[in-house]
Fold this sequence. Notes:
Elements: E1 8-12, E2 19-23, E3 31-34, H1 40-43, E4 52-57, E5 62-67, H2 78-81, E6 83-84, E7 93-98, E8 103-108, H3 110-118, E9 126-133, E10 136-147, E11 153-155, E12 167-170, E13 177-182
Parallel strand pairs: 7-13
Antiparallel strand pairs: 1-2, 1-3, 4-5, 6-12, 7-8, 8-11, 9-10, 9-12
Amino acid sequence: MIKDIVSTYIEFDNTTGALKSITSYPQSKSYIEVDPEKIKSLLDGTDKFRNYAVNFNPVSCMYELESIHEQKAFEYNIHNSLYNVPTGDNGDIILVKDYKQKKWLIEFGKIFQKTITENNVTLNTNKQFSITKVNDPYQLYRSLQFNLAGDLSLQFDNNDATIQEFNVYTNKTFNSYSVEIRK
């Protein structure tokens, strides 16, 4: 007897991550392929859809099914908690200091932008940056916070235009970052 191999997919709301259905033939653009063995409790009804969510992992650049009750294993790494963002224009997340517009901007790198566009990703996360004295992360000039699903610009405050030399620090949650200065 020949047995067909049929893939299993989970359809989800790409804004909230809420599961919509389990199917062999996805009807929407927001779905991931899953191993049926790993979702057996969902298939047989012993577990509920509301206990799971599909979230975009910015490191792997893929959507992943996660239990909302299980906390991810967290490995503390000081280099990721106090990450000194390099200058350039080649990161996944680019913080731009634009002197002409008198704004701080967030832009996405070309490959990262293509990935989130093709996968219809909504980045439901806040990203914070600390603007500090050069080589001194403990002397804070300003902190910036962006909602990556919302407005990606912030107006300069009274000191931003005068501060020419600075470092930027952040908690590293994406693969790469960079700081670009536009004059």
